[in-house]
Amino acid sequence: MTLCRSRAARLAVALLSTPIVLAPMLATPAHALIVFDPSNYAQNVLTAARTLQQINNQITGLQYQAQMLINQARNLTSLPFSALQQIQQSVQRTQQLLNQAQNIAFNVQQIDQAFQQKYGNVSLSASDQQLIADARSRWQNTVGGLQDAMRVQAGVVGNIDTNRTQMSSLVGQSQGATGALQATQAGNQILALQSQQLSDLIALMSANGRASALTEAERAAAAAQGREQRRRFLTPGSGYQPGNAQMFNRGN
User: Fold this and answer.
1) Region 111-129 average pLDDT
2) CA distance 138 to 135
């Protein structure tokens, strides 16, 4: 019993005298720790949002500029249709009819010369044959003027169908214009067509007025010539001898 206690005491002394070695703790370096800063995070998000908004604004601006360029290109696009040649041809046809006026043309000098020679005062020294020839010439002028007026009327009427087709085409081009330039050019051609129609109307009025003037001038000249022929007929020694005319036989 005493021996067992002695052994236990020695074992206890040995354990107490033995140095205890503790295992070292694994420590994490300070720079490897992740630290969350809410204020810095919010600032970064706000900066990113502002940057994104600026980019969107730039994209919108570029789209607006691109649309402006597209609109400018449309406004500068020329009209792929022209009725000018047809309008000019219609004007030329009417002008040719006026230039083909018979005898007395639409010329101031020719009119003055003709009226001095054939429509003025009847010459007292003119022979009867000359008076007859002048009267016939005036009659031919009147008939020619009436024919010229009718020819101009026919030409103007012939232009109506052409004008109708051109007006329909120009209105369609104006309504389908892609830009301001095309609409303006279509409008200008419509105005040109209206000017051509107005020219036809003026030509028609001129031709009718010429025919009417020649008719009245012939009538006035014929009246003057009639008075001269009557004077010559009643002049003593002209071969006419007045006498008594017996209209009914008287019975006995």
Assistant:
1) 87
2) 5
